[in-house]
């Protein structure tokens, strides 16, 4: 038996909103340079950036001192991963 095509399913691809396309082009430029030169650890950069953001948010939330951390920062890093 031949499959009956579903009229509700579109086979044409939908485009992204213009704002997302602009953001993708802005962030593509610096990252494509790294990818073109063999840098394959963008995930490592992402993880380090997110960890730094987590520490910064903790400073803002709990105060700009080291009193908020109960454990060394290495323990937070292991918990983050």
Short synopsis of the structure:
The protein is mainly α. It has three helices and no strands. Helix content is 59%, strand content 0%.
Describe the structure.
This protein has 81 residues and is an all-alpha fold. Helix content is 59%, strand content 0%. The termini are far apart.
Helix and strand topology:
Blueprint: H1 18-36, H2 42-62, H3 73-80
Quote the distance from N terminus to C terminus.
51 Å
Compressed to H and E, one letter per element, the order equals: HHH
The overall pLDDT average reads 75
Structural class by sheet pairing and helices: mainly alpha
Q: How much of the sequence is in beta strands?
A: under 5%
Round the Cα radius of gyration to an integer and report it.
Answer: 22 Å
Low-confidence stretches: none
Helical run tally: 3
Q: What is the number of strand segments?
A: 0
What share of residues is helical? 55-70%
Shape: elongated
Report the biggest beta sheet as strand number plus sense, adding barrel if it closes: none
Keywords:
81 residues, mainly alpha, 3 helices, elongated
